[in-house]
UniProtKB/TrEMBL annotation:
Record: residues binding substrate: R311, R351, Y355, E383, Y412
Gene: lysA
Subunit record text: Homodimer.
Record-given protein name: Diaminopimelate decarboxylase
Domain of life: Bacteria
Keywords associated with the record: Amino-acid biosynthesis, Decarboxylase, Lyase, Lysine biosynthesis, Pyridoxal phosphate
Length: 454
């Protein structure tokens, strides 16, 4: 990263780092959908996640439109919003209103989506170690599909379906051997990891045979997810081909598989140094081409294709608003560095500490001309790895009480937040058309103490 890089100003562009409705007003205060961050800080406190509702919904719509258009001449497509990136009842309703389905990966995610009034038929369930409770709830609510992730899960789902005198709609999660994406921990399609059933070893084929032979299971689809924060289209095309070849194999065995889910993982820009990711149309085009090739080669009917984007829908729609506290100048081997402490940290964004992820930041409460100082934004936790932004040029005049905004924190920020150091997790404020409202309220110390039963 170039030293002391200034953070780009909000400009309404889709890849400009800030949500499309973020601006700076004539006093230099950042506004989101017409609401100033000063007003948000005054009303809701800091740190706070600020979610641009219209931005998130428009990214969801862009995926839906791209998939519908790319698959119009095939058997159509569905988009599942991956709730693990960030989920709340309001978000579940927005995604449903935009025509998306929702992918859940736990009892809590499933209950949240159901509590929002989303019908089971619009929800999918993942997980490499599902409990009976999770599977039973999914079956009772008429879930669209349960993605089977291991051989023992076949019997588990069949048993729970038999008890309810029903057939469970299932997918098989396949590891294709294709891997792509950011950090090692977020690559999921190579062999030496916990997810899915390998095509190379024959485990996926065994699962297909067992499921097809089980009267309590309806083998609807195949599923592949190759990783996360992927900025190129090639891996998706390769993985699609492996999955579709497996579909051909199944058809040769007499098992027709009607649906294919090609997962999530579409990357976003976090800083000015990151490349602009391909547009949804480009990803959708690569997937549709793989399906077209498969159909023309095999003569099989086209499958219904779904995808599961999370990050690319919500990450750029949210910023985190912090208040600056202690400031400290230190000497390092590479010159002076300013440590700017804020009132949150690794409890509201674990990604820098866990993955070394880079973010950027900007002074949000006023304009500041003049010199930029090489700065590191840090949190208030008892850990030196508690970094919010590794390296950013901030105005020399930044001082305690200023507001600082960190953009692109919508995905895996609140959802991977913690109560480390007994910190209360921030609320999420949704902003639309000049109105701000809390959709997830800030935790209070009473919330935390209520869990502590002595
Ligand atoms: N579908 C499946 C089966 C997944 O495992 C995931 C993400 C997604 C969809 C959504 O992927 P997305 O479009 O959001 O990349 N905590 C990490 C990311 C973990 C992703 C886990 N699975 C991070 O903060 O980078």
């Amino acid at each position: 990263m170039s030293e002391m890089m200034a953070t780009p100003e909000p400009n309404g562009e889709r890849h400009g780092l800030w949500s499309v409705n973020t601006r700076r007003d004539s006093d230099g205060v950042l506004t989101v959908a017409g609401v100033s961050v000063e007003d948000i800080a005054r009303e809701f406190g800091t740190p706070t996640y600020v979610l641009d509702e219209d931005d998130m919904r428009s990214r969801a719509r862009a995926w839906k439109r791209a998939m519908d258009e790319a698959f119009a001449d095939l058997a159509g497509a569905e988009v599942y919003y991956a709730g693990k990136a960030f989920l709340s009842k309001a978000v579940a309703r927005w995604m449903t209103a935009e025509g998306l389905h929702i992918d859940t990966a736990s009892y809590g995610e499933l209950q949240t989506v159901l509590a929002a009034g989303v019908p089971g038929s619009r929800i999918g369930l993942h997980g490499n170690n599902k409990s009976d409770e999770e599977i039973a709830l999914a079956l009772e609510k008429g879930i669209a599909h349960i993605v089977i992730d291991s051989l023992p899960e076949i019997d588990q789902v069949a048993r729970l379906a038999a008890q309810r005198k029903m057939r469970a709609p299932v997918y098989v999660r396949v590891t294709t051997g294709v891997h792509a994406g950011g950090h090692d921990f977020i690559q999921t399609a190579h062999e030496d990891q916990k997810f899915g059933l390998s095509v190379n070893s024959g485990a996926a084929q065994q699962a297909i045979r067992e499921i097809a032979a089980n009267e309590h299971l309806d083998l609807l689809g195949l599923h592949s997810h190759i990783g996360s924060q992927i900025l190129a289209t090639a891996g998706f095309g390769e993985a699609a081909k492996v999955v579709l070849d497996l579909r051909t194999w199944a058809a040769e065995q007499g098992t027709q598989i009607r649906e294919v889910d090609l997962g999530g993982g579409y990357g976003v820009r976090y800083t000015d140094d990151d490349a602009v990711p391909p547009a949804p149309e480009e990803f959708a085009g690569v997937l549709a081409q793989a399906v077209r090739d498969h159909v023309s080669k095999t003569g099989l009917p086209a499958p219904l294709v779904s995808i599961e984007p999370g990050r690319s829908i919500v990450a750029p729609a949210m910023l985190t608003l912090y208040e600056v506290g202690t400031i400290k100048d230190v000497q390092t081997d590479s010159g002076p560095r300013r440590y700017v402490s804020v009132d949150g940290g690794m409890s509201d964004n674990l990604r820098p500490a866990l993955y070394g992820a880079n973010y950027t930041a900007a002074l949000a409460s006023r304009n500041a001309d003049g010199e930029l100082v090489r700065s590191r934004v840090v949190g208030k936790h008892c850990e030196s790895g508690d970094i919010v932004v590794h390296n950013v040029g901030l105005p020399d005049s930044v001082e305690a009480g200023d507001l600082l905004a960190v953009p692109v924190t919508g995905a895996y920020g609140r959802s991977m937040g913690s109560n480390y150091n007994m910190m209360c997790r921030p609320g999420v404020v949704a902003v639309v058309d000049g109105q701000a409202r809390e959709i997830v309220r800030r935790e209070t110390i009473d919330d935390l103490l209520a869990l502590d039963v002595g």
